[in-house]
Amino acid sequence: MAKVEFPLGGVYSLLEPGPVVLLTTSQAGKANVMTLSWHTMLEFEPPTLGCVVSRRNFSFAALDATGECVISMPTAQIGDAVTGCGNCSGRDTDKFAAFGLTPVPASRVQAPLLAQCFASLECRVVDRTLVPRYELFVLEVLAAWVDPALPRDPTLHHRGYGVFMLAGDTIRLPSKMR
Ligand SMILES: Cc1cc2nc3c(=O)[nH]c(=O)nc-3n(C[C@H](O)[C@H](O)[C@H](O)COP(=O)(O)O)c2cc1C
Which of 47, 48, 146, 158 is deepest in the core (most CB within 10 A)? Predict the structure, then answer.
């Protein structure tokens, strides 16, 4: 079959790297949460990741000023909260109240964990080199928490414009990774 040219603006939806996550920040005692899907692992240990946070978002200033955040992993069970947090701003909305998310104190950073998420990663910014050009913050995970009582799937994977793939089935294939 002949190839059909794919719009460059949609490339991200083919390469979407991982689950949609929720990024919490806290500045001057005010916590906020935003939805984020542009993230990637960079190092195993210490666990290091890259996250693109647009400077148009309220969260950008808090992340940049405090150098801290928490990345939490939701499942489709709270999909409405996930999309809700990505479609309004902490500038004028208390998203925790609006979407029924419960902040839980973290151990190493001011930003809160989220009770409804099966995993939460406490992070600090370790490299801002790519922020001016790509709004990409490099984060080191300082502490990681999981809630064994919460299901880990199906996670949500963004395909663009409100379309999500659900991941759930797990299979094991031969691996030489150590
Ligand atoms: C599924 C989804 C994924 C998103 N991924 C990102 C992302 O990776 N980076 C980003 O800057 N904004 C992303 N957004 C947009 C922000 O979540 C959105 O602009 C949000 O309103 C910002 O909130 P804030 O102003 O309280 O920081 C995403 C939104 C959705 C719905």
Answer: 158
